[in-house]
Amino acid sequence: MSAILWLCRDFRFDDNAALAAALADGPVLPVFVLDAATRAQGSASRWRLGRALAAFDAAWRARTGEHITVLEGEAAELLPDLATRLGARRIHQNDWPAPAQQQVQAALRHVLGEGPVRLHLHPGHLLVHPSRIRTGTGGSYKVYTPFARAVRQAGADRPLPAPGRLTALPAGGDLRAGGLNLAPDMFRGAAVLAGHALPAGEAAALDRLDDFFDRARDYPAHRDRPDIDATSGLSEHLAFGEISPRRIWATARLRAEVEPALEAGAGKFLAELLWREFAWHLLLAFPQMPEAPWRPEWAAFPWAGENAAATAWTRAGTGIALVDAGLREMRVTGRMHNRVRMVVASWLTKHLLTDWRIGLRHFEDSLTDWDPAANAMNWQWVAGCGPDASPFFRIFNPEKQAETFDPQGRYRHYWLQGEGALAYAATLPAAWNSPAGWVEADSAPLLADGRARALAALATFNRGT
Ligand code: FAD
């Protein structure tokens, strides 16, 4: 017998339950299906997916001598025939519980029906299987702190070792992963991102994790500083499953045990990883989270829709140094520091009173670490409409944030005047550079009275609800 390993967001050998199960069935064919849901993803994320596939293809080839297979179309139409041709009885996938993927899985299950071929989903995208983390009444958690406590008490599931021996089926079809350019239509051109890309793939992810422990001691003090390389930079790898959260958890616990000086840093780092876990817990409970406010009364908040100031925001032209620096960083590299993401999002939703979904979609199109759960939870958190959100009246003053977290102005200087500014200028389409196309808001009045304006909007809204 043979088996199909249906790749999704699990481009790794380590802690890969679907791969282990497929190998137990016989020779394995890893298949990625480039479907409509994937094509609808944001451009930076699609571009990064192409790199994840290429890196996994190279690693698979190095171990087995074979390519992975990439098919274009819908899994429900392609995989049943493929399984029949190969004589495979099982299609294994590591579950990526994003709503779009769940629909794709359901469509495949429907076609497979009661026939001989079965789809098996395996856990590994999260620390703990969601069914194990329930409140006393059997519901899902809505507040981070008790949720995090429950996960710590349950204990993260143990990671599986990478398989020792691989037996692979020869790749079929013409589309080889190495040559895929999944985002040729990207607005900024994949070349820009490529010039600033971090290494992709499992080996790079494991190196990055290892490397992080050289800096972990300072993580609690420096993690909010965009001018210091203090965080792990693992989010991109996590988004594509090049490393599993269970491996990160186990490694951090072990390192802290061996080196007690790392304990505080590792603890804070794992608390952040639990925010990722919480985001997925919320998305599973409320799949509409990317589109609808968690708290339904917020559907009536009078957010502004598309507007000129919001367009200036998407083009990094707000005139607010820290906000524009962050948006430039994202445009050029596909990344943005977490503290700056919060400031940028606060400016859009509070000072500009603009609908958080406009920002969410811009991030979705621009981030190489785009994650449907983390992006939606954080946007709702900043906008104040999420379940355990920062209250709307907590409005960041971007200048104070800049003084505190970029005290020497290094981060802002890099993106507004330094090399980063040049890289950003190179991404600008001609239309933006024309007098009609360039938008830069005059933000001085907003800095002065934006907070009061936002609070007044909140007061009116509260009176009406
Ligand atoms: P580290 O500080 O090293 O943290 C380790 C890991 O913990 C991260 O890799 C990430 O998986 C997780 N984590 C850390 N902070 C958060 C958080 N606030 N929420 C959820 N998980 C967290 N993260 C994404 O991965 N994808 C997104 O699409 C995304 N969108 C965001 C949108 C907004 C408006 C905001 C404010 C935050 C968003 N984040 C998102 C969360 C956070 O900014 C990134 O996870 C973090 O910057 C990644 O850098 P790092 O890996 O160096 O983090």
Automatic annotation (TrEMBL):
The lineage of its organism: Bacteria, Pseudomonadati, Pseudomonadota, Alphaproteobacteria, Rhodobacterales. Keywords: Chromophore, FAD, Flavoprotein, Lyase. It holds the Pfam family FAD_binding_7. Binds 1 FAD per subunit. Belongs to the DNA photolyase family. Its cofactor is (6R)-5,10-methylene-5,6,7,8-tetrahydrofolate; FAD. One of its GO terms (molecular function) is DNA binding. InterPro entries: Crypto/Photolyase_FAD-like_sf (IPR036134), Crypto/Photolyase_N_sf (IPR036155), Cryptochr/Photolyase_FAD-bd (IPR005101), Cryptochrome/DNA_photolyase_1 (IPR002081), DNA_photolyase_N (IPR006050), Rossmann-like_a/b/a_fold (IPR014729). This is Deoxyribodipyrimidine photo-lyase. Residues 1-127 form the Photolyase/cryptochrome alpha/beta domain. It is an enzyme of class 4 (lyase). Its EC number is 4.1.99.3. The record marks 303, 356, 379 as: Electron transfer via tryptophanyl radical. The keyword Lyase applies. The keyword Flavoprotein applies. FAD binds at residues 219, 231-235, 269, 369-371. One of its GO terms (biological process) is response to light stimulus.
